[in-house]
Write a structure and sequence with these properties.
Layout: E1 3-7, E2 47-53, E3 57-59, E4 64-73, E5 85-90, E6 94-95, E7 104-108, E8 113-119, E9 125-133, E10 136-145, E11 151-156, E12 159-161, E13 167-173, E14 179-184, E15 192-195, E16 201-204, E17 210-214, E18 218-222, E19 235-246, E20 256-269
Amino acid sequence: MKTRLRFTTVGLMALGTLFLILAGCSTDSPTEPEQPPLPGGVVTGRWAIAIDSSANTMEAGGDSIVFAATISNRDTATPPPDGATVIVSTTLGLIGDPTTGSSALVLQTFGGGVVFEVFSGVDEGTATVEVAFQNAMARRDVMITRESFLFIASVTPNSSSKTGGVTVVIDGENFAEPLQVTFVGATGSGGALALGASGVSIGASSDVAQVSSVTSSQIVATVPEYTAGALFDGQFAAVDVKVDLLGAGGTGGATVVTTYTAFDAFTYFGFGIPASCGNSQLDEGEDCDDGNTDNNDDCRNNCVVPFCGDGLTDSGRGEECDDANGADGDGCRDDCTVEECGDGIPDPQEECDDGNVQSGDGCSDTCELEACGNGVLDTGEQCDDGDLDDTDDCPTTCEDAFCGDGFVEAGEEECDDGNLDNLDGCDDTCAIEP
């Protein structure tokens, strides 16, 4: 049994409408749950991210999957404005291009989201694709392999209150009946339910997920109540979701043919404050209890110990910021230090960071790579128009075009053979010689 309690004030990622233009399965990926506002008026962000993908698996060595992330305001259901910064990343493969792509990329929203392509590369394994916007973050796993096997891509929705009862879609590959689904540790006993070929349940305990349908790429089930322990405001429990394909005979002594576990794929979050909080005694469900109403000391008013990611900046604990998430690239790192150009740490939104804010050394004062063709006039360049056109007045050498540079400037030169010699077919004015 694997149950881990964590404590957070991160907003619950509500699951938005998926992009319909993509073929294949379409689900959201794991995000952290929303919590009620902390005492003192601290409120987490309320953005929801839904990730859709054209497939759940791809072959190593050049295959690709298109991802579309939809972003919406949880309170108003409105999208962010066009041009808002989104950070996308993958743990395997490359984003944008199979050879020159990157594992992390800064994109801008358009029409309420972003669309990007991930290429497989040569390595096999699970690629975790992450989309971060402000203090919201969503993840989706895809499998890079050279053969087909059981795989869980995501669970949607991926969180609920401790009472459970929500219907979830488990998206993946190569599901087959009979099978059983386990929310590992949710009940303290690892309950599960199997489904027979007829769609009738063939074995279950009373406090586990009810499976209602199975296809080769999707399982629909109802989440059981979390009964493994107390969960109060600011606390949550991340549990694994496991799918076992069974041999004939159902759950009663059935043989497990194969299994796949998606770690920390579903999260239960608590609510309410223990009635005993504030009595200066450490009671069940409390991390601490100092008996006061100071929310900036070593014990929050909801009897939870302060931690990086709780939305309150604790300078006494060495925090420079705290935006209530575990994402980098949004101005505040996952270790609660401020992301700044020139600090020597390349962040996702930076192309480089050489530890200074001086231009002319290969990394500009805005942490962009200094290179011909970037559209910025860097030290040593005469021009830089940001394109790869050698027929305009600024070729790819980033030197002003001139007769004899070897590039034929459209509308100005008839020829350019890289010299100013006459009698070689192209004279010293870059006109064709008869």
